[in-house]
Amino acid sequence: MELTRLEKRLRDREPGLMDATGRYAVLVPLVEGGRGECSLLYEVRAQKLRRQPGEVCFPGGRIEGSESPEECALRETWEELGIPRERLHILGRLDFIAHRANFILYPILAQVDREALDDLTLNPAEVGEVFQVPLEYLKTHPPLEYSYRLLPDTDETFPYELIGIPRDYRWQPGGENVPVYPWKDHAIWGLTGRITRHLVALLQETEEGP
User: Fold this and answer.
1) Are 28 and 199 a contacting pair, CB within 8 Å?
2) pLDDT (tens digit, 9 = 90+) per residue, 69-83?
3) How far apart are CA 128 and CA 3, in angstroms?
4) Which CATH superfamily is domain 20-208 in?
5) Of 21, 179, 12, nearest in space to 105 by CA
6) Euclidean distance between CA atoms 134 and 44, whole angstroms
7) Inter-residue contact 47 to 31 (CB < 8 Å)
8) Domain spans of the chain?
9) Cβ neighbours of 181 (radius 10 Å)
């Protein structure tokens, strides 16, 4: 093995999520109102979708080819909401999510030109409707939080004897925290709820900082 070549490959390579089955990005649309108040723009997934119909989400999808997370988020926002990239100002990346299903999700925070909301073109195959929630409401109404355990479930083919551990081996359990923001007739939860909670915490830290 040529260690010099390996060193160069590692130096030029951006580390990712080990064993990841996919990379995804979403755009977190921040809309500034006339008086300076800001809201988050959410989508409701179309009822005809096979996966998660009717759930609240941000525009986004799988990163294709050599796309950056930002390029993916901008493309998906155009495809789903008809907002062109020139009417979006990228503010930066929020913390990424390494999901238990072995994919990585990059939330991209962006400011939306207010006038762009007058020209929204919802893709009916993907989006049922959109709505806004004021950031002030999200700051003053913390989410409901629920937790559940994730327990390993091995079958008879798992090689306990080969590994040298007993069949009643005490696996380390995992866990999941689920934030839920009730808003009128909708519930913002799951990954979208986690991203919302993270953004609100980041904003509050920024406001309280030096």
Assistant:
1) yes
2) 999 999 999 999 999
3) 54
4) Nucleoside Triphosphate Pyrophosphohydrolase (3.90.79.10)
5) 21
6) 17
7) no
8) 20-208
9) 22
